[in-house]
Automatic annotation (TrEMBL):
Residue stretches making up the Glucosidase 2 subunit beta-like domain: 258-372
Keyword Cytoplasm among record annotations: no
UniProt KW keywords: Endoplasmic reticulum
Domain Glucosidase II beta subunit N-terminal: 8-129
Stretches for region Disordered: 191-217
Protein name: Glucosidase 2 subunit beta
One GO CC term on file: glucosidase II complex
Pfam families: PRKCSH-like (PF12999), PRKCSH_1 (PF13015)
GO terms of biological process kind: N-glycan processing
């Protein structure tokens, strides 16, 4: 076969290796680097290593790798089973393709809907931001007024306390009569007191008004009750005006908080929707149907959970170990990668790779962990 040597026809399959590549012994095990071809009519042909010929094991379904009579020809049965399996796989693939087309159509509609919602959210956020700015200005003005009023009240209270302290000091000085350290001033004070006493005595000696003499009548001054009612009405009016003003100010503050809270919620919703639109959903967006869905499978004592675009975890009872967070697709969207999981003892962070296979049901079929330390 390699063209380096020509041998007679009767040297083929004579159980002696004449060619370096073992091509002269396709039906025997004489050449260690040779190969044996199984026709396997009714099933799939097979090529074996020559060392597997005449080893008393039936590797070919037609039994030609062993001596006559040792192996039964099972190619028809094997072929029928293989064809049935292939037909089942083809039917499954066809159903999977139908689901794929349905998912692609759903994504086309979902993308239009999400894009429309995002535009509306952007407009709502812009409008709500203006309202927040407007009410924040009014709130700032109210807080400034309140600060100035507090400062004015504190200044008035300080002034009142100063006046009261000065009055108390003056009262302490004059209580019990005037006093001085100046001897000459003492005589002057005595003279003033004597003059005041003489004036009061002269006033008391004046005769009463003659009979028939008309005295000027002064209008009656309001009594104590009238003065109290007037003062009370004035105080009530002041309190009512102050209460109305306080309510208006509180309304401004509450309205600002309400708009700010609504803006925060709108911004959060917009960010989440924008993130979803930026995700890789594969060809025609078919994987968008699996967004936020989780799949589990029980393997021995562990429950493995894989959440698309989320996290992969290994659970045992109440304990949960992170196998990594979503990192994206690999190998042309035929595998999922999760990494950055919990640190292994004396090893790297855990990770998980999920191989995808087309089918009619989304499920996590099986999990293997070749090295639990890595």
């Amino acid at each position: 076969m390699d063209g380096l040597l020509t041998i007679p026809r009767d040297h083929l399959n004579d159980n002696y290796c004449d060619c370096y590549d073992g091509s002269d012994e396709p039906g025997t095990s004489a050449c260690s680097n040779g190969s044996f071809y199984c026709r396997n009519r009714g099933h799939l042909p097979l090529r074996l290593n020559a060392s597997m010929v005449d080893d008393l094991l039936c590797d070919c379904c037609d039994g030609t790798d062993e001596r006559d009579g040792l192996c039964r020809n099972t190619c028809l049965e094997a072929g029928a089973a293989a064809r049935a399996e292939l037909q089942q796989w083809a039917a499954t693939a066809a159903q999977g393709e139908q689901l794929r087309e349905a998912y692609a159509k759903a994504w086309a509609q979902r993308e239009v809907q999400w894009t429309s919602e995002l535009k509306q959210l952007e407009a709502d956020v812009a409008q709500k931001s203006k309202l927040v700015s407007y009410w924040q200005g009014k709130k700032t003005a109210v807080e400034t007024e309140e600060r100035l009023e507090r400062e004015g009240a504190e200044a008035a209270r300080a002034a009142h306390e100063a006046v009261a302290a000065a009055a108390a000091a003056a009262s302490n000085l004059t209580e019990g009569g005037s006093w001085t350290h100046d001897p000459e001033a003492v005589g002057e004070i005595a003279e003033e007191q004597e003059a005041e006493a003489a004036a009061q005595e002269a006033e008391s000696e004046q005769p009463d008004a003659a009979v028939g003499e008309v005295e000027e009548v002064q209008p009656a001054k309001p009594g104590v009750w009238g003065s109290f009612r007037a003062a009370l009405a004035k105080a009530m009016g002041f309190l009512k005006a102050a209460g109305t003003q306080a309510q208006q100010r509180q309304h401004i503050k509450d309205t600002f908080v309400e708009h700010q809270r609504a803006l925060t919620e709108l911004t959060s919703t917009m960010a989440a929707l924008s993130r979803k639109l930026g995700l890789d959903f594969g060809p025609s967006g078919v994987f968008s149907e699996l967004l936020d869905r989780c799949f589990t499978v029980q393997v021995e004592k562990y429950t493995y959970e894989v959440c698309m675009y989320g996290e992969a975890r290994q659970k045992e009872g109440a304990a949960s170990t992170s196998l990594g967070s979503w990192r994206g697709f690999e190998d042309g969207h035929s595998a999922l990668l999760f990494d950055g999981g919990q640190q292994c003892w004396n090893g790297p962070q855990r990770s998980m790779r999920v191989s995808l296979q087309c089918g009619v049901e989304e499920k996590l079929a099986n999990v293997s962990e070749p090295n639990r330390r890595h």
